[in-house]
Design goal:
By secondary structure, the chain is α/β, with parallel strands linked by helices. It has 3 domains: 244 residues, ANL, N-terminal domain (Rossmann fold, 3-Layer(aba) Sandwich), CATH 3.40.50.12780; 189 residues, ANL, N-terminal domain (Rossmann fold, 3-Layer(aba) Sandwich); 131 residues, GMP Synthetase, Chain A, domain 3. 40% of the residues lie in helices and 20% in strands. The chain has a 9-stranded mixed beta sheet, sandwiched between helices. Strands 4-3-5-6-7 form a 5-stranded parallel beta sheet, sandwiched between helices. It has a 4-stranded antiparallel beta sheet with strand order 17-18-20-21.
Length: 603
């Protein structure tokens, strides 16, 4: 067994923890476990079936499914025989799925259900075999996963040593997956990641995060995204911990209460939503309620400082924190399951204010940084190594350089092999010294903590030659309990403008408190009273920015940005190019003088 091979490490834990829960899935209203031993037996059976179908090391096998236990089974099966997983986001439309499968050319497809399979069947592509998790009587060309497992068990019984023989052939430098990028700025590229890429990244991250077999994770970010794949799947199974599956993004908070995880890996959007929900409740509360809340928040800072600085709390501080928890924070702690020891935030920048709030509430949130091309983690905050506002320190074996234009360059064992079928693109991002050019702008402080300014491509250069990094400004605006999303524009323009979406439930409560009629939201957002409120909120949240960075004009979008409309990636990052194209007239309107038509390409 090689410790740098994903499947070897997994089966080590099958032997170490046979009776320990590996996966937790909700069935008939209750979470039920699949033990490590049981999961190992299923993977063996599926692996021998793939082998009997002629699947060999290096062959591609696609997985098209939402997060569920069968996704893990399918991928670990691939890792056990040397097949290359091609994870596909289930939120993609048929044309996007067709593009990816024609590029990666998988021989086998694992698919969740008939709805997703029908998307695939629109493509002119022929799989050798299709295995479906939830059977559909109208789709007879797909074999049921249960049938595959049962047939595989018979193969295991007939030749018990066959699986071990195959497993032993897998090596650290073998490709584990082709992980397609989210495509925030262009066509997705297939990132080639090896067993070693992932396992080294897991090992180094676990050391900083101090993860143990007793931990329990809740999985809800898409497993097709490298952050959840590494942080919410490989990490727990290679440590010997358990993974619970959320029913959906909408039910994450409910499922936290049921699964009682100790760790949850998330993009900032979840934490922003928690913060906004709490703050909107406080805004609508009485004066005494506000006073108690802000006292508790101030009291909780002692807990935050103790965690960050490693200094013990005094007896008096402990007593005050106990009161603050009882009066304010216990409800939030209970909603998150009551056992969270750390949230892990990645995929996009997390607001320092939101991090401070969660720390003060007894819910530490530790931010990291990485890319699909780096498996993904390259820096992390961790217990005893925290600096709020930063994305942490370099994980072991990872080197950095800051280029003359402040772009972050990284080299290490977690950096990809390259882009599948795209050597030119690979040469563009990995230089002759092996450093990956991340496309992000940032700097290290004197203690080695990395701070991200923004994406290099996102920097706005105004008509006056001023450089504006939109991300910190957008994050500040979103701290308003009324505003759910903000996207800035201003490249080659004389001033900065913003498109914003609002929290409709909060706005409705505000309208009721102001005794304003609220019947049609699309009409209500035009009201001068609301426009004045949002203008004041933007000004308040951005008061500390320079004059040239401030938003001069804004427009309210009538509906939230969503994955389904293409405005968000499956990992919940904003697709600025899509939004710019969709709302070009609205943005131009904020710059145009009456009767003046502006070029449509200046966004």
């Amino acid at each position: 067994m090689n410790p740098l091979v994903i499947s070897h490490r997994f089966f080590d834990n099958v032997n170490k923890y046979p009776d320990k829960p590996a996966l937790l899935s909700k069935v008939a209203g209750q979470y039920r476990p699949i033990l490590y031993q049981e999961l190992g037996e299923i993977v063996k059976a599926m692996a021998l079936m793939l082998d009997s179908w002629g699947i060999r090391k290096g062959d591609r096998v696609a997985i098209l499914s939402e997060n569920r236990e069968e996704w893990i089974m399918s991928d670990m099966t691939n890792q056990s025989i040397g097949a290359v997983s091609v994870p596909i986001y289930p939120t993609l439309v048929a044309a996007q799925i067709e593009e990816l499968i024609k590029h990666s050319e998988p021989r086998i497809l694992f698919v969740a259900n008939g709805i997703l399979l029908r998307k695939v069947l629109e493509a002119e592509y022929q799989f050798e075999r299709i295995v479906i998790f939830d059977t559909d009587p109208e789709l007879s060309q797909a074999m049921a996963l249960a049938e595959m497992i049962e047939s595989g068990r018979r193969l295991v019984e007939a030749n018990p040593e066959a699986f071990t023989t195959i497993l032993d052939t897998i090596e650290p430098e073998d490709i584990a997956c082709i992980n397609y990028t989210s495509g925030t700025t262009g066509v997705p590229k297939g990132v080639l990641l090896t067993h070693k890429n992932f396992v080294v990244d897991v090992n180094n991250s676990v050391g900083i995060m101090q993860m143990v077999p007793e931990d329990c994770f809740l999985s809800f970010l898409p497993l097709s995204h490298v952050l959840e794949r590494m942080g919410g799947y490989y990490t727990p199974l290679l440590v010997g911990a358990a993974i619970g599956f959320a029913e959906s993004i909408e039910k994450v908070v409910v499922n936290m209460g049921e699964v009682q995880p100790t760790i949850l890996v998330s993009a900032p959007r979840l934490f922003e939503k928690i913060y906004a929900t709490v703050m909107s409740g406080i805004e609508a509360g009485s004066a005494i309620k506000k006073k108690i809340f802000f006292w508790a928040l101030k009291t909780g800072r002692a807990r935050m400082n103790s965690y960050i600085n490693g200094t013990p709390l005094t007896g008096w501080q402990k007593r005050k924190i106990k009161i603050a928890d009882k009066l304010v924070f216990s409800k939030l702690q209970k909603k998150t399951g009551g056992k969270i020891t750390r949230f892990v935030s990645g995929g996009a920048p997390l607001s320092k204010e939101i991090a401070e709030f969660l720390f003060s509430a007894g819910l530490p949130v530790l931010e990291g940084y990485g890319l699909t091309e780096t498996s993904p983690v390259i820096t992390l905050n961790g217990p005893g190594k925290v600096r709020l506002g930063s994305v942490g320190i370099a994980i072991p074996e990872t080197e950095f350089k800051i280029a003359e234009d402040n772009e972050i360059l990284v080299r290490g064992p977690q950096v990809m092999k390259g882009y599948y079928k795209n050597e030119a693109a690979t040469r563009e991002v990995i230089d002759d010294e092996g450093f990956l050019h991340t496309g992000d702008i940032g700097h290290f402080d004197e203690d080695g903590f990395l701070f991200i300014t923004d994406r290099k491509k996102n920097i706005l250069i105004t008509a006056g030659g001023k450089n504006v990094a939109p991300q910190p400004i957008e994050d500040a605006i979103k701290l308003s309990p009324y505003i759910s999303e903000a996207v800035l524009f201003g490249d080659r323009r004389s001033y900065v403008v913003a498109l914003v979406t609002l929290d409709q439930l909060v706005i409705k409560k505000w309208a009721e408190n102001q005794h304003l009629p609220f019947e049609d939201y699309a009409e209500f957002i035009k009201r001068p009273e609301l426009q004045a409120l949002i203008e004041a909120e933007i000004e308040k949240q951005t008061a500390h920015f320079s004059r040239f960075e401030k938003v001069k004009k804004f427009r309210i979008i009538t509906s939230d940005f969503t994955i389904e409309t293409g405005e968000l990636t499956p990992s919940l990052k904003v697709r600025k190019k899509i939004i710019a194209d969709k709302y070009v007239d609205l943005v131009n309107e904020m710059y145009a003088e009456p009767g003046q038509e502006l070029p449509r390409d200046l966004i």
